[in-house]
Amino acid sequence: MKIISWNVNGLRAISQKGFYEFWQAQNPDILCIQETKCHPDQLEEESLTLQGWHGYWCSASRAGYSGTATFTKTVPIDVQCGFGIRKFDTEGRVVITRFKDFVLYNCYFPNGGSGMERHEFKQEFLRRFGQHVIRLMRSGEKVIVVGDYNVAYMDIDVYDPVALSKESGFLPEERRWMENFLESGFVDSYRYFYPDEKERYTWWAYYENARVTNKGWRIDHICVSKNLAPNLRSARIFDEQTGSDHSPVMIELDL
Fold it and tell me: In the predicted model, is pLDDT for residue 45 greater than 60?
């Protein structure tokens, strides 16, 4: 099974920049996108999903903001928009799809860089979302959490760990949260295969030619509960794929 996650930074914009061509060429079993910045009723019918696929959306109440969508070849057993906390769910940050072999969380974690209010909002999201999925995992479920975590946690996950140590997304408390999340029973699929690989990033700021000079951050992750780790077969960052300020990430599972 092949799962791809991509923060597209606006589905309507990226649809003109090779999004559907990438989707068709890679042909995953499940495609999760974040930051759709639209509601499905704002799209033409042919733009909602590729033929033969099923799309499940969680859009923000605020127009043109946030939003997630999961596209699958098979119909899930159950679908849920949000994880039960209204202040987060109204921002369209989580689509949950349950399949026979696992529960998949497609997530767009908040960015806390615009001020103290959003910083605190992000820290609460991290805490409460982490509690939610850890509780589910500890009940015996197999859980996959994909998306834009807006957190880099290892020094090699950013281009300059010293200069960025006070920036949202690489703050000590956020790094600790990610480390605790993994210690609780989740596996960072990319580091599972490439524990020491440097200069492999998934996001570059648009300013200062950051992508050209590879001044990036690895903040897009696919984490699986440890009871799924033996099923991992590969992980990949498509850092050559343009169209968004993020690159797609992928895992393959043998189920």
Answer: no
Count other Cβ atoms within 10 Å, centred on residue 6: 28
The residue whose two tokens read 């029973």 is 185
What is the number of helices (H) and of strands (E) in the chain? 7, 14
* CA distances from residue 213 to 84, 106, 159, 163 in whole angstroms, order as listed: 41, 30, 10, 16
Q: Could you say which of 101, 148, 160, 245 is catalytic?
A: 148
Rounded to whole angstroms, the Cα distance separating 250 from 198 reads 18
Longest dimension (CA), the chain: 47
The pLDDT tens digits for 184-242 are 999 999 999 999 999 999 999 998 789 999 999 999 999 999 999 999 999 999 999 99
Alpha-carbon distances of 141 from 22, 103, 108, rounded to whole Å? 31, 7, 22
Region label for 88, one of left (φ > 0), alpha (ψ between -120 and 50) or beta (otherwise): alpha
The answer to whether the beta carbons of residues 169 and 219 sit under 8 Å apart is yes
Q: Is 196 a catalytic residue?
A: no
Which pair of tokens denotes residue 125? Answer: 């999201």
Q: Would you state the pLDDT for residue 80?
A: 98
221 close to 149: Cβ distance less than 8 angstroms: yes
CA-to-CA dists, residue 103 to 70, 146, 193, angstroms: 13, 11, 22
Question: Whole-angstrom distance between the N-terminal and C-terminal Cα of the chain?
Answer: 7
